[in-house]
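Checklist before submission:
- one chain only
- standard amino acids only
- sequence pasted in full

Submission:
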Amino acid sequence: MTDLAPRTAARTTGRLPATLPEMDRTLARQAGLLVAVFVATLILLAGGWTLISERGAQQGSPEPSSVAGSVGPAQTASSSPELLPLGSGPSGSPDTSVFLTGAGDIADCSFKGSVQTSDLLVNQPGTIFTAGNNAYPTGSDQDFASCYQPTWGRVKDRTLPAPGNQDYRTAHATGYLGYFGAAAAPDGTTWYSTELGAWHVIVLDSNCSQVGGCGADSRQGRWLAADLAAHPDTRCTLGIWHDPRFSSGENGDNPAVGPFWDQLIAAHADLVINAHDDDYERFAPQNAAGVQDRKLGLREFVVGTGGTTLRGFPSQAANSEFRYAGVWGVIRLTLHPANYDWEFLPVSGRVTDSGSALCH
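Returned file contents:
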């Protein structure tokens, strides 16, 4: 009777009880198996997370609406990026990103604004642009020599100029044309186009009554149609001229430049930069009738903050996303092969409006 319990246990388990060394080996094998399973699980989870991350990066994020409203120097608005991976263009082509920085309503010897904005420009890489009203009060030779040359003239050799109404206060804009020379009229007219990186940049003259009109059947309108037709495969297109089609500023909307919008939208252009109103304003993409169209519309920036008198906003135009009054500054665009970034740089040194978007 003394050994009955062990024999019964042996029949129940089908073998004799394990010795201590055997139990140690069994536990070791089980522990090793658990470790192997744990490591394999970690590897599978890491691989799945990497795949999810890569897919998220490829899809990108949509451009959210930005803060709207008239703001003062202490307020900031921005849009989240909608960018392709850095260092690459469409279909993995090499990155040809370039910088384009500038403003309009610039050199006025009565103010220190053009001195301060030009101090920003000399430290910016890439190309500089003007959006008209380059030298006050009349755009004469003397105005350019005394007011523009000591300030924005420091970056003249890399400037794409555009004329404004003040420049035509001297007959036929001879002060403007004489100062900038071939850069202002490379083909003998005050409108022209050029390539910056992967972008096609078109400079137009919105002084319609001075240049024979801005309509589609005018000399300038026919040139614009031919220029756009000659660049059918361009992914990103930017237009620069003085008078804005839409504005919340004191001068307001200018329907005379509507034909520019019609042609640019038909060609799937992306951006327009204007001045004339002495403030900074950003619009949502919209069509020539002022209807918001984020798929095919033009995004307009009004940057009349180059150095002369600053003014406020007596009204708020439809689709105005950001307004900034009472400060001099410049806009800096980073033009990527298939998208762009913008930053408004006030002379205080703080970025007050920035964002990114894809080209059409």
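Reviewer check: The helical segments are 4-13, 20-59, 113-121, 141-148, 174-180, 219-229, 258-266.
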